[in-house]
Amino acid sequence: MNRNIIVAAAFFGIVIIVIAGFSSYYFSLLEAQNMPMIKPTSMINLENGSPALGSESAPITIVEFGDYQCESCYYWFHNTRSTLIDNYIETGKAKLVFVDLPFLGRDSITAAQASYCAEDQGKYWEYHTMLYTFQDGAPDSGWANQDRLNSFAFTLEMNMDEFNDCMDSSKYKIRVKANYNEAVKNGVQSTPTFIIISSDGTTKKFAGAQPYSVFAATIESML
């Protein structure tokens, strides 16, 4: 066969392949343009977390994964949280849910269980505040041992028989473990870690004791 004919045939073959490929891409593009945008959906299970702080109907949910013996969590609690509550939670724009990631020591686990025993008496957030107010020293240094946990409950004027029965029975052991598993499932590797969820299920995640400005900018972009 003449060499020029072979070259021409090869050239036309390439052209046909290119045209076919372009047509396939073009029609795929048209099809994609006619499809609705799929918004990311939050798969975080908050069933075992804390009661929500703020309005249940708030359009933004702030999920905090934390450990009561975490120094960075303490820092965030005392430097950012109150302003966030004033400007977003008390105004009905956001609600806060705490999910336990008790990995720093044995007292982290019992402190988390104690917070839910306090919830039984309607004092979850008061007890939560007590734990972060009196955090003192390294993990498992004794500041959150059983005696101290009891003293926090006594200070809050809780029914001590009910509180002790709850703690002695390890009533919330499974709940705390479920929260730990939820944190791991969502790729949380340190505390505090925050996941902000909008009303349409879109999420934004960041780790560390971030300043108020980071939360404000993130929430405003999602409202």
From TrEMBL:
One of its GO terms (molecular function) is oxidoreductase activity. It comes from Marine Group I thaumarchaeote. This is DsbA family protein. PANTHER family: DISULFIDE BOND FORMATION PROTEIN D, GLUTATHIONE S-TRANSFERASE KAPPA. The keyword Secreted does not apply. The chain crosses the membrane at residues 6-27. It comes from the Archaea. Keywords: Disulfide bond, Membrane, Oxidoreductase, Redox-active center, Signal, Transmembrane, Transmembrane helix. InterPro entries: Thioredoxin-like_fold, Thioredoxin-like_sf. Coiled coil: none annotated. Pfam families: Thioredoxin_4.
